[in-house]
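Feature request, filed as a ticket because there's no other form

It would be nice if the structure record came with a short human-readable summary line next to the tokens. Right now we just get the raw output. Example of a typical job, pasted below so the devs can see what we mean:
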Amino acid sequence: MKYIALICARGGSKGLPGKNIKLLDGVPLIGWSINTAKQISRVSRIVVSTDSDEIADIALQYGAEVPFMRPEELAQDNSPEWLVWRHAINYLESHDNENIDAIIVLPATAPLRSVDDVNSCIDMFEKFDTDSVITVSEASRSPYFNMVVNNNGYSSLVNQPKSQVARRQDAPEVFDMTTVAYVVDANFVKNHNGIFEGKVKSVVVPKQRAVDIDDLMDFRMAELILEGRL
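Raw output as currently delivered:
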């Protein structure tokens, strides 16, 4: 199959300014994703989608391609990531005559992923009849036990179970989606509007490899994990 590794990294980040090129253990966050992609034998190209010249320059230094600059309308705070994926696929197919089976999305914000995590996603994508494979980690909160919503000033469980749940272990098992990796059928991206419109499989990843860096606290946590202090 023809896989393209896609790393999406826009220049604007309000939670942690300059996030995608912030140095973690001496390597910019985007460099971590590129270095992982370079170790995946089934990846034919590593493509970065960005609106930032600085990010583009660093991506090139680490061995990725930047065949286009992301349009401004897809680089806003509210720009759907799905449309960024679709734009990349359409560009590569129309400009480079690529015939892409699937994209492997490796967000720059999950630097602690392992090569095995990504290969497990690809293996599952190839083994099962599925449109996409996502990564998840064990959730510490459950909508059936200790996650609440407020209605008319009163709190209630997000999902009310049919019978009383006294322990979290007795509630249905739930997981947090992570940004470690996504493997998604290219035609599915072009013809649908979100992952859960199709058939989805998931790979469970340990929490210490699933840190998603959105703010300074997340970044500090990643540093502590790398230092062996967490």
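Something like this underneath would help us a lot:
Residues 81-95 form the longest helix (15 residues).
The domain at 3-136+176-226 is CATH 3.90.550.10 (Spore Coat Polysaccharide Biosynthesis Protein SpsA; Chain A).
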